Amino acid sequence: MKDLFPYLPLLFVVFGLVIILVAIRGIINGKRFVRQAQRVQGVVSDVRTRFTGQGERLRANQWPVLTFTTLEGQEITTEAATTSDLGTGDETEVLYDPQDPTTAVPAQDAGGSYGGIVVGLIAVVIGVVFFFGFWDGGSKSGCEIQRPDGSLESVACPPGIGTGG
Q1: Of 124, 157, 137, which is closest to residue 10 (Cα–Cα)?
Q2: Interior angle at CA 123, CA 119 and CA 129, nearest 5
Q3: Cβ contact 80:49 at 8 Å
Q4: Angle CA 45–39–28, to nearest 5
Q5: Can you tell me the distance from the alpha carbon of 125 to that of 9, in angstroms, rounded to the nearest whole number?
Q6: Assessment of whether the complete model's pTM goes beyond 0.85
Q7: What is the pairing mode between strands 91-97 and 38-52?
Q8: What span, in angstroms and rounded, lies between the C-alpha atoms of 1 and 88?
Q9: 95: pLDDT confidence band, cut at 50, 70 and 90?
């Protein structure tokens, strides 16, 4: 188990790479949605607040309820697919899926965020730095000899000793 400890920082690398991949997927899906979405003017008719976490980690996310008329003349009121800082009564450009107009977002919040990529890169860098801080290339960093008085002295290992083999 002790031999695995130096490799634990690689979990940061894996975790960071997963975050990056999920963020890239979100950006790609967001840009795909923007390309195929219809644009219309709308208004925020309500804001729904959802809380996540507990205690000091309690966070409020605001989900606007958008009211708009599709290009086909259908009036839609739906909760946005993304959080937003928009308030009740704010006018905004709305992007909606022509196949399912209830899937809509304020145009300013469409397209995905690069924040996940930044967080993922930070995790990867931390993992790499700690990995190379703990990793010794699979060999011992040196040998110790015990002097006649009982003290230890660090010395270079003789060939074939302390090299992990």
Answers
A1: 124
A2: 140
A3: no
A4: 105
A5: 10
A6: no
A7: antiparallel
A8: 56
A9: very high
